[in-house]
Design goal:
single chain, mainly beta, five-stranded antiparallel beta sheet
């Protein structure tokens, strides 16, 4: 099984950040399903009171763009799927897989 990470890209004016939403093991199909679920449900801001969300698939399903309208602000974020390609210590990562 492959090891995956879901990333969220956020931009606010001149500020840009990338965060890890979750890590897990699974097949590519399982990873894409999890990415889609996260794109449809994840709250990118603290206290977000969602009024409306539009989710757009980018490419073949390894990324989604979400336009999330809240009560006070609109969030525009991209969720991306990453597969672990290489690591110096594959059995001693600082985060738990389970």
């Amino acid at each position: 099984m492959a090891r995956w990470v879901v990333l969220v890209d956020r931009s606010y004016g001149d500020h840009h950040d990338v965060d890890e939403v979750t890590h897990f093991e699974g097949t590519r199909e399982e990873a894409r399903a999890r990415l889609y679920e996260i794109a449809c449900t994840h709250r990118p801001g603290v206290g977000l009171r969602q009024k409306r969300r539009q989710v757009y698939r980018i490419g073949d399903g390894d990324a989604y763009y979400a336009n999330i309208e809240g009560m006070m602000a609109t969030f525009r974020v991209v969720y991306r799927l990453g597969e672990l390609a290489w690591s110096t210590h594959p059995e001693s990562w600082p985060w738990a897989w389970k």
